[in-house]
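It would be a great kindness if you could assist me with a short task in structural biology. A protein sequence and the structure tokens that stand for its backbone fold form the material at issue. I should value your view on which stretches of the chain appear to form regular backbone elements. The record follows directly beneath this note.
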Amino acid sequence: MKSGQYKLSDSQVRHIFSDRRSAKLVAGLYHISLSMVYKIWNRECYGSMLGDIKLVILESPYAGEVQANVKYAQRAARDCALRGESVLASHLLFPQFLDDSDPDERALGTRLGLAWRRHASYSVFYIDRGWSRGMVMALTSAIAEGKDFKIRALDGALILPQDCSRETLALLRSSIDLTGGL
């Protein structure tokens, strides 16, 4: 091991972080800063895991049957998590502080959600509850910008939008993801 690198066992890491005093003690023993102890903790616990995590935009219906759609989006988010994906579900987040019934605030929420796409690996459309207008807008935007996306269903009902060109339908069919998850 190179100078300045420390390898801690799982039990040592658990002991160090059982309380703040222990972390300070270890920092003093190894003559390193407390922040370095926390960096070692993060590397030991999360280092290899974080490289596999994908950032994704979750698209699913919201309006209409809001309670049922929120429960469905929560199931979809869980499905993503089990696939190693960290989701942004802007349609669940922004209505908590923006008025979804106000067209200006809804448009703002849509723009804010789409702004995250530049950081995401891809968008994931969960479609067995159908396609909302917002989902179709997000799909159209993703196709126009050449962004990657996947089509998934939790309950097996793959419903594609009705008013699409043949090229778009072919692209959608090639993006269907039947792997992993719940």
Remarks:
- Helices lie at 10-16, 20-29, 34-50, 66-82, 90-93, 103-115, 133-145, 166-174.
- Residues 107 and 148 are 23 Å apart (CA to CA).
- The first strand starts at residue 54 and ends at 59.
